[in-house]
Amino acid sequence: MPPQPLMPPCRLLPQQPILPPQQVGTPNVPHQPTEQQVPGQGCVQPGQLVILYKMSHLVVPSSKTDQLGYSVTIILERNKTSSICPVHLMSDYIAMRYKDDGHLFCHANEKTLTRYQFSNILKKTLAFLGYNPSEFNTHSLRIGAATQSFLDGLDENSIKLKGRWKSAAYKGYIRTNLEFNEVEGKLSLTGYFSISWVDQTISWNSTENGIEVVTLEEHIIWKPSFIIGNSYDGVKFIHKDDTVMRVQSNGVVTWTPGDNYDVVCNADVSRYPFDTQICKLQMLPWGYTSEEIVVVPIYEYVVPWWFNPQKTWEFIESSVAKDEDLQLLEFSMKLKRNPMFFVLNLILPICVMIFLNIFVFLLPPESGERVGYAVTVLLAIAVFLTISSDNLPATSSPRISSISLLLFSDVVISAIIVLMVILSLRYYHREGNYPVSTFMRGFVNVSRILRCKVCCCRGKQEKYNENDIKWTDVGKEIDIVCGIFITVVICIVNALYIIDVTIGLPGLD
Q1: Which spans are transmembrane here (predicted)?
Q2: What is the pLDDT along the chain (509 residues), one digit of tens a residue?
Q3: Residue 251: Cβ-neighbour burial (10 angstroms; 0-12, 13-18, 19+)
Q4: DSSP 346
Q5: Which helix (H) or strand (E) holds 373?
Q6: Same domain for 312 and 362?
Q7: Is the Cβ–Cβ distance between 363 and 369 less than 8 Å?
Q8: Which one in 156, 172, 180, 431 has a CA-CA gap of 20 to 30 Å to 484?
Q9: Where does residue 418 fall: left (phi above 0), alpha (psi -120 to 50 degrees), or beta otherwise?
């Protein structure tokens, strides 16, 4: 399982390489390692941490992405609104530390904190907070920083600079999740909108100063307000106060707000688990008329550049539609369920259970286990019915799920089998001083004649004496007839289910 991201509680500023004194104020060019700075031995020392009023500077002498020991400075802003601000916590840690030398992170006995120990502490902390520690590791911190930077609208170069990536490998750390909860009817996805418009009030002549593009925080200039039209938790505005805007010299403003969005998506589980869902995300301007703002989609589909494949659902296709009256954009996404897990853990066990029901008629009546066997199988199928109902929405619109109809049919068949077994045993164990009725004699004779005609392996038909028919014969013939009847019914029910989930049954859709 890939590790999950751990989002940073503070804002990460672009990391800059440390400069020698003579290069301060010049372009950021890394310097060569000195004799004291041996590659591979760059452990962080307490003196390489500088905590200021609003931020902290942490010098990393060398790392996996800086094996030559150029060193970089990580700048963290203080977060006054968070109780887990790393700058504040680092200040408390330095105050508790009783020595100024050695490694920065160490135990009370001055031994260095190893990566294994840090990973173990991280997992225990996550377990204490209620998270599943198996879904996280030390890479989750790097994944969380990359994902948060992506959601903040930073461009490719800024993300690479913050994570010290030199190639497009950073894309593998960005988690654009897509989760669909069909029981709650909620689609959760992570992504961003790329919104552009022209603002002539902030254009300039780039030939005078050579500046083509500048970046500004979003609260500085005007921006349109948009909402998610089908948000799961009420009205949700599309904005993030710490998102940057990119302004070009010709007045073109590009705004890329990213966030986690929960939208309403009512599931159609009629062919569960072989179902396909179409979920929509609606976006429209808030407080503006169609004469004031005209929304034009850039693409005719949802761009899956950083899409991380989901385990349960497969992203098939997407489209974008527009409502001219409301200037509403509707992003449609088609999802297909990966059914193999449900086939192996739900459908096949159900089929095995229902076919086991047939063998109850092969048990000797003298064993005394026939009723217990039939009831046990009935209860097992009822358990699978409960499991299935927990994974399906409590609705019959547009129709009942095929798996629910199959399970209900199997429960009914199992209940009928229990009644048949009880009836058969009642006749089988009836005392011989009660004469066999004429109806039962006729039933036994007809059953024997039909079996003799159907059975082609016999050279001649057996002759039966009607006077020799006993109640045990009646019980045996009931077992044979019921076993054949139930086998045919089970095969028909399962065949109808297969047809329904593949091409659909007329009258049900």
Answers
A1: 340-364, 371-388, 400-423, 480-499
A2: 455 555 444 443 333 333 233 222 223 333 334 444 443 345 666 666 666 666 777 777 777 666 666 777 777 777 766 667 878 887 887 777 766 677 778 887 778 888 888 888 888 888 888 877 877 777 778 777 777 777 666 777 777 777 777 776 766 676 656 788 888 888 988 888 889 999 988 889 888 888 888 988 777 888 888 999 999 988 888 876 667 788 999 999 998 888 888 999 988 888 888 889 999 999 999 888 888 889 999 889 888 776 777 778 888 999 999 998 889 999 999 999 888 888 888 889 888 888 888 888 888 888 888 899 999 999 988 888 888 888 777 777 778 888 888 888 999 999 999 999 998 888 888 876 777 777 877 888 887 777 776 665 444 445 555 567 778 888 888 888 888 899 999 999 999 988 888 887 776 65
A3: middle
A4: I
A5: helix 370-390
A6: no
A7: yes
A8: 431
A9: alpha
Cβ atoms 72, 17 nearer than 8 A? yes
Structure tokens at 15: 């990391």
* Two tokens, residue 207: 């030939």
**Is the CB of residue 406 less than 8 Å from the CB of residue 392?**
no
Considering the domain architecture, whether residues 346 and 494 belong to the same structural domain is answered as yes
Of 27, 79, 78, which is closest to residue 57 (Cα–Cα)? 78
The structural domain count of the chain equals 3
Residue for token digits 């068949």?
413
Nearest to 218 by CA among 245, 179, 185: 245
Distance in angstroms (rounded) separating the CA atoms of residues 495 and 346:
17
CATH code (residue 98): 1.10.443.10
The label of the residue with tokens 């026939």 reads 370
One-character DSSP codes across 93-138: HHHH---SSS-SSB-TTSPBPPHHHHHHHHHHHHHHTT--GGG--T
Select from 455, 456, 431, 427 the least CA-distant residue to 443: 427
Tell me the residue range of the domain where 288 lies: 176-338
Contact of 312 with 337, CB cutoff 8 Å: yes
Q: Strand 236-237 relative to strand 226-228: parallel, antiparallel, unpaired?
A: antiparallel
My answer on whether 140 and 190 are in the same domain is no
CA distance 379 to 414: 9
pLDDT at 39: 39
Residue 385 belongs to some domain of the structure: yes
Cβ-defined contacts of 220-224 (< 8 Å, 24+):
220/245, 221/245, 221/247, 221/253, 223/195, 223/253, 223/255, 224/195, 224/197, 224/285, 224/288, 224/293
- Domain annotation covers residue 2: no
Contact 318, 345 (CB under 8 A): no
Chain position carrying tokens 């199988």: 377
Distances (CA, A) of 138 to 15, 64, 123, 141, 165: 20, 14, 9, 6, 17
pTM above 0.85, yes or no: no
